Structure formats: structure tokens, C-alpha cells
User: What shape does this take?
Amino acid sequence: MAKYQCPDCGYIYDEATGNEHEGYEPGTRFEDLSDDFACPACFVRDKEDFALLEKSSLKK
Ligand SMILES: [Zn+2]
Assistant: This one.
């Protein structure tokens, strides 16, 4: 499972947890999200703007 971060507000979409508020079941892969997916936090950034987070970068 990977995580993707919004470059604008820092929201992180975690494939392992999904986003139930937006209707994405836990385990939903980012690439399987609809193409019109927009950041659920700021609604500014689109799917293509999200940056893949390396797992190692999360351990600080
Ligand atoms: Zn955002």
C-alpha cells in the first residue's frame, strides 16, 4: 500500500485506510480512484497533482 500527498495542503491519501468520508473503501488503490478525484481536503489539487510518498520518507 502506498500513500499520496497533496502538494498544496499536505493531505495524505493512504491506500490502506482509504477515505470513507469520500466513499473510498480501505484498500482502494490510488490508481483506481476516479480520474476526477480531487483533494478531499482543499479541493484545489487533482489526482495527477498528488505526489507518491516513499515509505521510508514517512519514518522520521
Ligand atoms: Zn489538498
User: Anything to note?
Assistant: The chain has one domain: 3-58. Residues 6 and 45 are 7 Å apart (CA to CA). Residues 6, 8-9, 11, 39, 41-42, 44-45 surround zinc ion (CB under 6 Å). The longest strand covers residues 3-5.
